[in-house]
Amino acid sequence: MLEIKVNDTISLKQLQPEHAPMVFGQIHTSRKTLRRFLPWVDYNTHEEHSYRFIQLMQRKADDQEAIAFGMWENKTLCGVLDLHNWDHQLQKAEIGYWIGEEYQGKGIVSASCRALITFAFKNLRLNKIEIRFILQNERSAMIPIKLGFTKEGTLRHSAKLHGQYVDTVVMGMLKADWKY
Ligand SMILES: CC(C)(COP(=O)(O)OP(=O)(O)OC[C@H]1O[C@@H](n2cnc3c(N)ncnc32)[C@H](O)[C@@H]1OP(=O)(O)O)[C@@H](O)C(=O)NCCC(=O)NCCS
């Protein structure tokens, strides 16, 4: 199991099937806020759904297509951070994240992203990381902005949120520009 230490209290642990009840617990408790920008939340209605998600991400990790981590604060799994759309030819991948309501606004996601990006540039030999978010998701935007990402563009009607087309912003970080 891959583990990345972020600081004295926060760590990233690659998701394992036994984490499913904790992942589902966070989704269920924070359903109202998470569903605002994450359409899949409405379909994640049972622990089994989180279990299947973890199994899928394990298969993708075996194929080097993605890696999903639980974000842990001490002994609590408080959210999920992942690398996906891993393109080996271009040596690039995207980062996605969500965290339970009770743990938001504490800097856990920013610090975790910083550690994962450093790991990806150093250990996975990536050359570029992208973060994509729905235009209206100001809280999500703050993560790449604070980490020094560059805005690369807005993709119009590139996602669907609760039946409506929405625009997506792409921000990128190159290995050469990353401040370790
Ligand atoms: C997006 C999300 C992961 C951010 O988590 P977080 O815990 O707020 O992240 P952090 O605390 O690490 O950093 C967020 C920064 O945004 C700032 N922020 C907080 N609320 C904000 C708001 N409403 N508008 C703008 N900025 C805000 C914070 O001040 C913080 O900066 P600081 O460290 O200088 O204080 C979290 O809100 C979440 O899970 N949202 C629901 C799911 C989601 O939208 N995921 C992203 C999909 S692309």
Task: Please write out the topology.
Layout: E1 3-5, E2 10-14, H1 20-29, H2 31-34, H3 47-62, E3 67-73, E4 76-87, E5 92-99, H4 108-122, E6 128-134, H5 138-146, E7 150-161, E8 164-174
Parallel strand pairs: 5-6
Antiparallel strand pairs: 1-2, 2-3, 3-4, 4-5, 6-8, 7-8
The chain binds coenzyme A.
Q: How does this structure look, described?
A:
By secondary structure, the protein is of the alpha+beta class. The chain has helices at 20-29, 31-34, 47-62, 108-122, 138-146, and strands at 3-5, 10-14, 67-73, 76-87, 92-99, 128-134, 150-161, 164-174. Helix 1 crosses helix 3 (47-62). It starts with a strand and ends in a 6-residue tail after the last strand.
Concise overview:
This protein is α+β, with helices and mostly antiparallel strands and 180 residues long. It has helices at residues 20-29, 31-34, 47-62, 108-122, 138-146, and strands at 3-5, 10-14, 67-73, 76-87, 92-99, 128-134, 150-161, 164-174.
* Series of secondary-structure elements, N-terminal to C-terminal: EEHHHEEEHEHEE
Low-confidence stretches: none
Oligomer: single chain
Give the helix/strand class. alpha+beta
Largest sheet: spatial strand order: 1-2-3-4-5-6-8-7
Radius of gyration equals 16 Å
Q: Whole-number average pLDDT? A: 98
Indicate the CATH class of the domain at 3-126: Alpha Beta
Question: Which ligands accompany this protein?
Answer: coenzyme A
Keywords:
single chain, 180 residues, alpha+beta, Aminopeptidase, eight-stranded mixed beta sheet, 5 helices, 8 strands, 30% helix, binds coenzyme A
